[in-house]
């Protein structure tokens, strides 16, 4: 359990944080920038009214006293305010306030299936957003199969991201279409639209008709696959997260190009996501030896993505929808025979931050009840 302690070392008062990492002093500049004083923060938005870079570099704490569960801090620039120790503890972690991802494989059980009629209630919607954030996908059953219902479902979770394909797109087999997704061929595991900046955050695929025996949907968690790759071949993982690749899409009216590594890491080396679409990527010109090294790494990555130990495979029936984090969970489908009957899906994208915002709002609302 973390705590804040006032420590008086000689004349210079200090505030210490003690948590799982040990005990350490809280810097005066860090504290002063967090001042909750109404002169410093707008009371409605909580946003800061001044620029912290204008604080003097030699700022010091000149006073620290406990006052009815809070702490009055005074600073060498003359500022003084009451601080809530709990807020300081919470602010000591740069946490997004959402659950950590849970990597999964083919044996994931139970599947995160939610019923559309239930999702008008806060508790069920909260459970669905939590699954979406932790597992990177949810399945929603009992949805209406009328065209454009997908937009209502998308809007329950966030804001629809319109693209050159429109606010939603149709996935059914048609000759001479502008994407292989619109032919009856199998689609290996991939992320959508790596050629965009930013890449669409979440994808919804909604089944309106499926009279074929093939066309099974597949999902693979790149987090589990990347963990395995990093363990087996740390150099291969490093190459895929360092070497940029060129992704391109073009048709008569659009030409989209983005250059980025297949594995995207944040500043702290944690995986943000993957961009993986072997029908769209071009690797850079490198030496023969580096090309072979890169080839080995991407080959192993691809083998793991296609390894049945990582893949969920199921049939989407009419009224069923899958929603997944397009930067984390790869999707695909098996081939199908259009002569067996119709297979019609609709797809759309929403930004990745929508369900995360919804999760925080619902958590607040449910806690207040
Ligand atoms: O037809 C499907 O089930 C999936 C289509 C697909 O992968 C896509 O539109 O990106």
How would you explain this protein's 3D organization?
By secondary structure, the chain is an alpha+beta fold. It folds into 2 domains: 3-91, NE0471 N-terminal domain-like (2-Layer Sandwich), CATH 3.30.2020.30; 113-363, Clavaminate synthase-like (Double-stranded beta-helix, 4-Layer Sandwich). Helix content is 24%, strand content 30%. The chain has helices spanning 28-33, 85-91, 122-135, 149-157, 222-232, 234-242, 288-305, 353-368, and strands at residues 3-9, 12-19, 22-25, 61-67, 70-75, 80-83, 113-115, 137-141, 169-171, 187-190, 202-210, 217-221, 244-250, 255-261, 263-265, 271-274, 281-282, 311-314, 321-325, 329-333, 343-350. The strands form 6 sheets. It has a 6-stranded mixed β-sheet. Strands 10-20-12-18 form a 4-stranded antiparallel β-sheet. A 3-stranded antiparallel β-sheet has the order 1-2-3. Helix 5 packs across helix 7 (288-305) and helix 6 crosses helix 7. The radius of gyration is 25 Å and the shape is globular. The model has no long low-confidence stretch (mean pLDDT 95). 2-oxoglutaric acid (AKG) binds next to strand 20 and strand 21.
Count up the domains: 2
Side-by-side strand order of the widest sheet: 7-8-19-11-21-9
Number of helices: 8
The level-1 CATH class of the largest domain: Alpha Beta
Q: What summary fits the major beta sheet?
A: 6 strands, mixed
Following the backbone from N to C, one meets helices and strands in this order, namely EEEHEEEHEHEHEEEEHHEEEEEHEEEEH
């Amino acid at each position: 359990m973390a705590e804040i302690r006032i420590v008086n070392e000689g004349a210079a008062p200090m505030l210490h944080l003690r948590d799982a990492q040990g005990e350490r002093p809280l810097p005066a500049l860090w504290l002063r920038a967090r001042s909750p004083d109404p002169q410093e923060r707008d009371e409605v938005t909580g946003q800061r009214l001044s620029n912290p870079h204008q604080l003097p570099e030699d700022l010091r704490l000149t006073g620290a006293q406990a006052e009815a569960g809070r702490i009055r801090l005074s600073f060498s620039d003359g500022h003084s305010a009451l601080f809530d120790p709990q807020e300081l503890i919470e602010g000591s972690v740069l946490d997004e306030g959402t659950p950590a991802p849970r990597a999964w494989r083919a044996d994931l059980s139970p599947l995160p299936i939610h019923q559309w009629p239930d999702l008008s209630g806060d508790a069920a919607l909260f459970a669905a957003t939590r699954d979406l954030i932790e597992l990177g996908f949810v399945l929603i059953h009992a949805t209406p199969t009328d065209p454009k219902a997908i937009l209502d479902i998308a809007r329950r979770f966030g804001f629809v991201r319109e693209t050159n394909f429109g606010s939603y797109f149709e996935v059914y087999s048609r000759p001479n279409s502008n994407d292989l997704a619109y032919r009856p061929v199998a689609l290996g595991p991939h992320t959508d639209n790596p050629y965009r900046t930013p890449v669409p955050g979440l994808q919804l695929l909604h089944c309106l008709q499926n009279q074929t025996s093939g066309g099974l949907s597949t999902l693979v968690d790149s987090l589990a696959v990347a963990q395995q790759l990093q363990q087996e071949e740390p150099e291969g993982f490093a190459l895929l997260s360092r070497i940029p690749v060129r992704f391109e899409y073009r048709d008569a009216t659009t030409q989209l190009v983005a250059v980025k590594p297949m594995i995207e890491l944040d500043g702290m080396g944690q995986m943000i996501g993957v961009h993986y679409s072997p029908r769209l990527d071009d690797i850079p010109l490198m030496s023969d030896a580096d090309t072979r090294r890169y080839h080995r790494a991407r080959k192993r990555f691809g083998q793991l993505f296609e390894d049945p130990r990582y893949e969920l495979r199921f049939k989407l029936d009419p009224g069923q929808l899958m929603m997944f984090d397009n930067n984390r969970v790869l999707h695909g489908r098996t081939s199908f025979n259009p002569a067996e009957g119709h297979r019609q899906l609709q797809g759309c994208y929403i930004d990745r931050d929508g369900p995360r915002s919804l999760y925080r709002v619902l958590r607040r609302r449910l806690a207040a009840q």
